[in-house]
């Protein structure tokens, strides 16, 4: 602060230009303004009041108000910044919660004649049958465990009531929390077959357009068959011996059409089977085989059903003819 300007101001000898210069200096330094104010009012107390007293006091008050407004603005800005940050973080968390998880999937496809045991991310176990495809995420989501099946598999599902286990196929959707079951749902077949061993399952069936056509809940040792053509669902009881075990080449069938059994044999033994007679396709068969060759199975069936077969080794094709 210029002492000459200040002294002229106190004595009343300063002009408007000098007053403005002094004011500019004091405005740039609140400390100097406060000191000038104390000095000024000390002198005024001794010499008497002056119009400049009012001027300096008003300028001092003006600067103080300016400082308070600045402090209030900074305080308000901090609060506003905090609220904006909180809203932003809250919005991000809400967005994360609502945004569907992006899962990385893997797909395993087996050829005819192959079978494999697969361990899922939650330690559930799947015995995948020949000519089957299983797709599943490398890590299950937060709300459910879903896999996609085209073929046949035996599932031993780890229990988790918070995250249901779902098997989706082209024509059905099965939901469990923890259970063991066998599911056959080849997209090329006319039927889906589900056999529940332990726990409980809820099944929904759909047509090709995706419209729901049926629903059923199964209890242990209950079997559901969904006919994709008629869109009808039937259920029945079964025994342990009726379950297939591909890892040990165990094959069981009950009241099964020859043409449907032939599809299973094609997948098990990696062959093509062609019927020369349509009537032969509709014959119903029962049987239990374990570690038998395809020829052994055909020879056994021949004991009850008169037919002949021919094997073309060049194309790995078997031709069946009624007698």
Automatic annotation (TrEMBL):
Entry-linked Pfam families: FecR, FecR_C
Annotated signal sequence range: none
Transmembrane segments: 79-97
One of the record's GO molecular function terms: sigma factor antagonist activity
Domain FecR protein, chain residue ranges per copy: 107-202
Protein FecR C-terminal domain location: 250-318
Superkingdom of this protein's organism: Bacteria
Name listed for the protein in its UniProt record: FecR family protein
């Amino acid at each position: 602060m210029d002492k000459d300007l200040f002294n002229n101001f106190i004595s009343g000898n300063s002009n408007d230009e000098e007053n403005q210069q002094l004011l500019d200096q004091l405005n740039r330094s609140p400390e100097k303004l406060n000191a000038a104010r104390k000095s000024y009012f000390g002198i005024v107390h001794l010499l008497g009041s002056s119009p400049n007293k009012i001027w300096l006091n008003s300028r001092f008050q003006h600067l103080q108000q300016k400082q308070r407004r600045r402090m209030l603005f900074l305080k308000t800005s901090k609060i506003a910044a905090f609220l904006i940050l909180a809203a932003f973080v809250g919005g991000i968390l809400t967005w994360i919660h609502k945004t569907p998880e992006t899962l990385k999937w893997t797909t395993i496809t087996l050829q005819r004649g192959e079978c494999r045991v697969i361990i899922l991310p939650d330690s559930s176990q799947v015995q995948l049958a020949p000519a089957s495809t299983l797709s599943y995420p490398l890590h299950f989501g937060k709300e459910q465990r879903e896999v996609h099946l085209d073929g046949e598999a035996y599932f031993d599902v780890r229990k988790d009531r918070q995250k249901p286990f779902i098997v989706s196929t082209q024509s059905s959707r099965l939901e469990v929390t923890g259970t063991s079951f066998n599911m056959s749902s080849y997209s090329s077949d006319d039927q889906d077959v589900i056999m529940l061993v332990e726990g409980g399952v809820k099944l929904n069936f759909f047509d090709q357009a995706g419209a729901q056509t049926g629903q059923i809940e199964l209890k242990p040792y209950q079997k559901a068959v969904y006919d994709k053509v008629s869109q009808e669902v039937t259920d029945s009881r079964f025994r342990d011996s009726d379950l297939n075990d591909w890892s040990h080449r165990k094959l069981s069938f009950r009241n099964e059409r020859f043409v449907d059994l032939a599809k299973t044999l094609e997948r098990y033994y990696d062959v093509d089977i062609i019927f020369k007679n349509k009537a032969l396709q509709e014959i119903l068969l029962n049987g239990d085989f374990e570690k038998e060759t395809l020829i052994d199975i055909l020879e056994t069936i021949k004991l009850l059903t008169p037919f002949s077969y021919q094997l073309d080794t060049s194309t790995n094709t078997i031709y069946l003819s009624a007698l």
